[in-house]
Design a protein that fits this description.
The protein is α+β, with helices and mostly antiparallel strands. The chain is built from 3 helices and 7 strands, in the order ββββαβββαα.
């Protein structure tokens, strides 16, 4: 039976900068939002908060859902179902301390810097999620219902 990979991600903005992580994927340094896979017995929100902590050291609550994205990687025969959470912070940029050894660094980049590094994006969803955030796409967190 076919099952897509369920993933969670974050778009976090502060002072006109977005939080991304640099990680290694197939031996190449790439940029991604703090993101990862849903684990067994976890809600989507729990997965998102866990991944954010592992990849940045931050413990935050999202304000909204940016969107739900279906994407495929044909050459790997993989499909993803991504739930992207959003948060806009006030004040100073938060200091990060990645807990996951697979993360090279967490960094705050402007929209222009992110676009300039497009070839380093792990997937097209990095820019798509940021574009949707900038466009004001917001879904209430209550739209995701869990029986847990």
């Amino acid at each position: 039976m076919f099952k897509p990979n369920t993933t969670v991600a974050w778009v976090i903005k502060c002072q006109d900068k977005f939080l991304l992580v640099e990680e290694i994927d197939d031996g190449v340094n790439v940029l991604n939002q703090p993101a990862g896979h849903l684990e067994e017995d976890e809600t989507l929100l729990e997965a998102a908060k866990r991944e954010l902590y592992e990849e940045t050291g931050l413990q935050l609550e999202p304000d909204f859902l940016v969107g739900i994205y279906q994407s495929s990687v044909p050459h790997k025969n993989i499909q993803y179902l991504r739930f992207c959470y959003g948060l806009e912070l006030k004040g100073e940029l938060l200091k990060t301390a990645p807990q996951d050894s697979d993360i090279i660094q967490a960094l705050w980049l402007t929209e222009a810097e992110i676009k300039q590094k497009f070839k380093q994006h792990r997937s097209h969803l990095v820019q798509t999620c940021i574009n949707d955030f900038i466009a004001g796409k917001r879904l209430p967190l209550e739209y995701i219902i869990s029986d847990r």
